[in-house]
What does this fold into?
Amino acid sequence: MKVLGINCSPRKGGNTEILIREVFRALEKEGIKTEFFQLGGKDVSGCIACMKCRKKEDGICHQKNEAINECIAKMLKADGIIIGSPVYHADLSADTKALIEVASYALRGSGSPLKHKVGAGVIAVRRAGAIHAFDSINHFFLINEMIIPGSSYWNIGIGREKGEVVKDEEGMNTMKVLGENMAWLLKKTAGKGKKKADEESVLSGLKSEKTDPAGVPVTKEEKNKKPKKKR
Ligand SMILES: Cc1cc2nc3c(=O)[nH]c(=O)nc-3n(C[C@H](O)[C@H](O)[C@H](O)COP(=O)(O)O)c2cc1C
It folds into this structure.
């Protein structure tokens, strides 16, 4: 069993990453594998409503969104998903929002392949806005028919400067308990009811995906188009 932790903070090694790794520690103690993915700071964009993912029903973003497509492929292979965000302006970071918009719209158009996976949001905050950001991540898990474990408090760690969150004893303990509860839930639900078929069909679409020189996925119609004869 594997849990993917996605860091949507552009500050590598910062408080969000520390919180995700604290959940990882508890998961690994329970024998669950972990994989860290740095999304924050990469070239990502939110949904532009082109509807190509819905027309093709392939769970892929057809804009230049390589990092998010890579993340989608990793989400499909994981049994559990942690999405970590810092609070920016009493809300999610823009990179977290881009991931949620794009992944949710693309995947829900291809049969809810995240169904029955376990999901947890993790928030780093200086002072205000954490509950709102936490709720927004949970909306992603809930509409994708995922299961959310609780902890001894809401999954929030307090700190401003890089590394400051380790001083928030209660926040760090919340991450430890979250990891333990996530492991418990993963073990209880292992191999039960997951929609493997949907997951595999999206993954095979991602593998066969062709991109143009700019890294933009090429649609089926574009692939089959015959080159125009030169006059
Ligand atoms: C652009 C920006 C906006 C922020 N807005 C808020 C805010 O509204 N409320 C708050 O409590 N902290 C805010 N912060 C502080 C961060 O949430 C805090 O420093 C957090 O620990 C950063 O996590 P990181 O180290 O993973 O990047 C903001 C930080 C930045 C850079």
Observations:
- Residues 9, 11, 14-16, 86-90, 124-129, 159-160, 162 surround flavin mononucleotide (CB under 6 Å).
